[in-house]
UniProtKB/TrEMBL annotation:
It comes from Piptocephalis cylindrospora. The keyword Kinase applies. This is Kinase-like domain-containing protein. Keywords: ATP-binding, Kinase, Nucleotide-binding, Serine/threonine-protein kinase, Transferase. Belongs to the protein kinase superfamily. ATP binds at K30. It comes from the Eukaryota. One of its GO terms (molecular function) is protein serine/threonine kinase activity. PROSITE patterns: PROTEIN_KINASE_ATP, PROTEIN_KINASE_DOM, PROTEIN_KINASE_ST.
């Protein structure tokens, strides 16, 4: 493999586009630099190839071709996503580039969200909980159009990526896994006593709710789901009405989000129930 260009960088290493000189096929190579990690982080990150492999076999999971040890860590050889990630597609608007109306934009968002839900549900059924769901970890790649939709040549499908914080524990005790915007309140460092477990699947459902808000409004509902955050505190007082006003979404969608953002993880919908609610809500805004 020839490393061609950097695709992105993070606290644990970088991702590069790569070319197989024998076949001409493109790949992405993720390099995890252990010199940047604590022993605890290294142990967690070492699980990534194993947990990622458990989730393969679903079209919504990023292909993992091989894992290689190198001098300063290891590399994962992954599928190459031609269209980048969902964060750039949402913030830059390219996700809806060919849409001719608000109805078409919402339909595109529903399709993408349903694909993400199905990929995460597959991971859960495989005994893996992602714990870092966010637009940057949802990759977009080209999908062939349906025969009856041949004029739509940029129908996108998703690949769920980055299993570096994933776990096989249905009840997890590690705090602070993921990005603050997408983290459930029970996953935050300050909300529960140390070692008090939380439900891993329900924490993923919460993150999907924030992702849904991104797709519907291009906004985050709050910076962190803690009482000291003004927007989250307003939500705790006014529930769906606060979401409808702050995100400029319909009452129907705000009601769905309010269920997802239940403080009691046991009251949140299942992932596939959430998918169906979103597919059937009359409108987003």
């Amino acid at each position: 493999l020839l490393l061609v260009a950097p695709l992105g960088a993070g606290s644990y290493g970088g991702v590069y586009s790569a070319l197989d000189l024998r076949t001409g096929k493109q790949y992405a190579v993720k390099h995890v630099d252990t010199t940047r990690l604590t022993p605890q982080q290294t142990t967690m990150q070492r699980q990534e190839p194993t947990l990622h492999s458990k989730c393969l076999g679903h079209t919504g999971v990023l292909p993992l071709h091989s894992a290689l040890d190198v001098e300063d860590g290891w590399c994962l050889v992954l599928g190459h996503a031609e269209s980048g990630d969902l964060f750039d597609a949402v913030t830059g608007g390219s996700l809806w580039r060919d849409c001719r109306s608000q109805v078409e934009m919402e339909a595109r968002s529903r399709i993408i969200f349903a694909q993400v839900c199905e990929a995460v549900a597959h991971c859960h059924s495989s005994g893996v909980y992602h714990r870092d769901l966010k637009p940057e970890n949802i990759l977009l790649t080209w999908a062939p159009p349906d025969e009856e939709e041949e004029e739509k040549m940029d129908m996108k499908k998703i690949w769920l990526s980055d299993f570096g914080l994933a776990t096989e524990c249905p009840l997890a005790a590690e705090r602070g896994c993921g990005s603050a915007y997408y983290m459930a309140p029970e996953s935050n460092l300050s909300t529960l006593p140390p070692r008090y477990p939380y439900i891993s699947s329900a924490a993923d459902v919460w993150s999907l709710g924030v992702l849904l808000a991104n797709l519907a409004s291009r906004r985050n509902p709050w910076q962190r789901a803690v009482a000291s955050d003004p927007m989250y505190a307003r939500f705790l007082r006014h529930r769906s009405a606060a979401l409808a006003r702050s995100l400029h979404v319909s009452k129907g969608l705000a009601s769905i989000l309010a269920r997802v953002f239940s403080e009691d993880p046991r009251k949140r919908p299942s992932i596939l129930e959430l998918r169906d609610l979103v597919l059937n809500v009359s409108c987003f805004s």
